[in-house]
């Protein structure tokens, strides 16, 4: 079961931008991640490779402070907002809830829940800012 300070350290690592490093430091070697109801990706090394590949496809990622972080024993829920700035300069936003199962002080399983119809919709472009 994670202590709240450990969960907060994970949140800080993600907000500060190096998602691959956060995976390396906070996930079990046999951890899994799952997008909505898609098949899970398995193994920390593969999770890092997948994350790094995604980051190479964009210009930058802005991770906002979570709206909520709930810790209940081995279960953690985090309400995230991410802004992805594409190589085309367009900013797209994702609101998601990460449902995590921790084993000790590391994440063993994580499932991301979001509305796929509104995921990564543009919120601004180089020519026209929208909020």
TrEMBL record:
Boundaries of every SnoaL-like domain copy: 7-109
InterPro entries in alphabetical order: NTF2-like_dom_sf, SnoaL-like
Pfam annotation, one family: SnoaL_2
Gene3D superfamilies: 3.10.450.50
Record protein name field: SnoaL-like domain-containing protein
Organism: Parasphingorhabdus marina DSM 22363
């Amino acid at each position: 079961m994670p202590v709240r300070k450990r969960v907060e350290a994970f949140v800080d690592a993600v907000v500060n931008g190096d998602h691959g490093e956060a995976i390396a430091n906070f996930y079990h070697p046999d951890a899994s991640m799952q997008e909505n109801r898609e098949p899970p990706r398995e193994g920390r090394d593969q999770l890092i490779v997948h994350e790094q590949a995604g980051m190479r496809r964009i210009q930058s990622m802005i991770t906002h402070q979570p709206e909520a972080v709930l810790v209940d024993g081995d279960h953690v829920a985090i309400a995230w907002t991410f802004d992805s700035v594409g190589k085309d300069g367009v900013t797209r936003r994702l609101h998601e809830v990460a449902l995590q199962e921790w084993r000790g002080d590391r994440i063993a399983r994580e499932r991301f829940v979001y509305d796929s119809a509104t995921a990564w919709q543009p919120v601004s472009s180089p020519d026209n800012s929208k909020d």
